[in-house]
């Protein structure tokens, strides 16, 4: 089912109760809508959350770049919003998305590819795409 953006007045009302942290951010967990796979966690500021809910294309706030980060703008690995959910404390969002390609900058399907085991951190999956190719660089 395609995402339908709320009317501007409805969106404004919904966003009034969001509890951002001291830096003006809220945790955002991206989950593949049809499988339940947890893909990644990132941060959103008010502008990123509003843009995501208006456009249906997921936008985060990059703490390192100190600006909006539209998922897939450099890699092509876009997240299309299916549904957004707000937690009980209004301080975290769950984004049910349709992930195009890989979600992790390491070239893996998701960012949670290491498990804590008695032997130490164990890698659960290998990259599906070389990060240098993903971001068209030679790094």
From TrEMBL:
<protein>
    <recommendedName>
        <fullName>Phosphoribosyl-AMP cyclohydrolase</fullName>
        <ecNumber>3.5.4.19</ecNumber>
    </recommendedName>
</protein>
<keyword id="KW-0479">Metal-binding</keyword>
<dbReference type="Pfam" id="PF01502">
    <property type="entry name" value="PRA-CH"/>
</dbReference>
<dbReference type="GO" id="GO:0000105">
    <property type="term" value="P:L-histidine biosynthetic process"/>
</dbReference>
<keyword id="KW-0963">Cytoplasm</keyword>
<keyword id="KW-0368">Histidine biosynthesis</keyword>
<comment type="subunit">
    <text>Homodimer.</text>
</comment>
<feature type="binding site">
    <location>
        <position position="91"/>
    </location>
    <ligand>
        <name>Mg(2+)</name>
    </ligand>
</feature>
<comment type="pathway">
    <text>Amino-acid biosynthesis; L-histidine biosynthesis; L-histidine from 5-phospho-alpha-D-ribose 1-diphosphate: step 3/9.</text>
</comment>
<comment type="similarity">
    <text>In the N-terminal section; belongs to the PRA-CH family.</text>
</comment>
<keyword id="KW-0028">Amino-acid biosynthesis</keyword>
<feature type="binding site">
    <location>
        <position position="111"/>
    </location>
    <ligand>
        <name>Zn(2+)</name>
    </ligand>
</feature>
<keyword id="KW-0862">Zinc</keyword>
<dbReference type="InterPro" id="IPR038019">
    <property type="entry name" value="PRib_AMP_CycHydrolase_sf"/>
</dbReference>
<feature type="binding site">
    <location>
        <position position="88"/>
    </location>
    <ligand>
        <name>Zn(2+)</name>
    </ligand>
</feature>
<feature type="binding site">
    <location>
        <position position="87"/>
    </location>
    <ligand>
        <name>Mg(2+)</name>
    </ligand>
</feature>
<keyword id="KW-0378">Hydrolase</keyword>
<dbReference type="GO" id="GO:0004636">
    <property type="term" value="F:phosphoribosyl-ATP diphosphatase activity"/>
</dbReference>
<keyword id="KW-0460">Magnesium</keyword>
<dbReference type="GO" id="GO:0000287">
    <property type="term" value="F:magnesium ion binding"/>
</dbReference>
<dbReference type="InterPro" id="IPR002496">
    <property type="entry name" value="PRib_AMP_CycHydrolase_dom"/>
</dbReference>
<dbReference type="GO" id="GO:0005737">
    <property type="term" value="C:cytoplasm"/>
</dbReference>
<comment type="pathway">
    <text>Amino-acid biosynthesis; L-histidine biosynthesis; L-histidine from 5-phospho-alpha-D-ribose 1-diphosphate: step 2/9.</text>
</comment>
<feature type="binding site">
    <location>
        <position position="104"/>
    </location>
    <ligand>
        <name>Zn(2+)</name>
    </ligand>
</feature>
<feature type="domain" description="Phosphoribosyl-AMP cyclohydrolase">
    <location>
        <begin position="40"/>
        <end position="113"/>
    </location>
</feature>
<comment type="function">
    <text>Catalyzes the hydrolysis of the adenine ring of phosphoribosyl-AMP.</text>
</comment>
<dbReference type="InterPro" id="IPR026660">
    <property type="entry name" value="PRA-CH"/>
</dbReference>
<comment type="similarity">
    <text>Belongs to the PRA-CH family.</text>
</comment>
<dbReference type="GO" id="GO:0008270">
    <property type="term" value="F:zinc ion binding"/>
</dbReference>
<feature type="binding site">
    <location>
        <position position="89"/>
    </location>
    <ligand>
        <name>Mg(2+)</name>
    </ligand>
</feature>
<dbReference type="GO" id="GO:0004635">
    <property type="term" value="F:phosphoribosyl-AMP cyclohydrolase activity"/>
</dbReference>
């Amino acid at each position: 089912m395609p995402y339908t953006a709320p009317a501007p007045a409805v969106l404004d009302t919904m966003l009034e109760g969001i509890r951002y942290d001291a830096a003006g951010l809220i945790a955002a967990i991206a989950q593949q809508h049809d499988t339940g796979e947890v893909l990644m966690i990132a941060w959103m500021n008010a502008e990123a959350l509003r843009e995501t809910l208006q456009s249906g294309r997921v936008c985060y706030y990059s703490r390192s770049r100190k600006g909006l980060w539209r998922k897939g703008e450099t890699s092509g690995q876009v997240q299309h919003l299916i549904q957004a959910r707000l937690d009980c404390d209004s301080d975290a969002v769950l984004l049910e998305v349709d992930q195009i390609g890989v979600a992790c900058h390491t070239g893996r399907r998701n960012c949670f590819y290491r498990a804590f085991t008695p032997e130490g951190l164990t890698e659960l999956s290998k990259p599906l795409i070389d990060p240098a190719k993903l971001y068209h660089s030679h790094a």
